[in-house]
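Team,

Forwarding the record for the chain on the shared tracking sheet. I've put the sequence and predicted structure together so nobody has to dig through attachments.
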Amino acid sequence: MLAEKFILCVNEDILLEYEEILKRKYSVAVADSFLSALKELDNVVYTGVFYPLDLIKLDYDDNKFADCAFAGNVDFLITNDKHLNSLKTLDFPKISVMNIVEFERYSKGGLTAKTILGDNYKIEVDSEGITIFYGDELDSQYEIPSGMLTEVDSDNYSSIISELEGKQWIQDKVNLLYDLAEVIQFSFPINIIDWIHTFNIVAYIKYI
């Protein structure tokens, strides 16, 4: 959250529950400090709930999380509360639920597998990283391990791009750079890639 890689949707009912639990398990000071800090974060969004859906039957108090998730049109509801797993069985509204372990794996690319087929190239992604297939028969490949994707920052951004710049097979494939950027963001959302100094430079200055 502090790195602002995700947006957290909350409402007053959720904050009141946070406050109650923190006061009970820790202290009033800890609860006040946490809530004050939470309210200062730009990526915390206060979400109004205008219609209670009453989706959770086993524990009515959990409905505040489901209602907030639906109203906020979230990608995932992250919870270890087993009552909220009932949302997985609903066709509508569709609210994707993950527990903490699944979310940690997802943030590192562990829950995603995807293939993108482009013009004379193919990109495959899994928890190990990304493989780019190229050539007339797509019989050549270039691999980017997951560690390289999550450890790049503004001080060493060239570790990916300097490698790609030297490859003749990429120089006429501008779309591959956009596909590569998209799949990294989708499959490895906890990355620290400086996008301005990587794909933008290559796409806009060198190849376009």
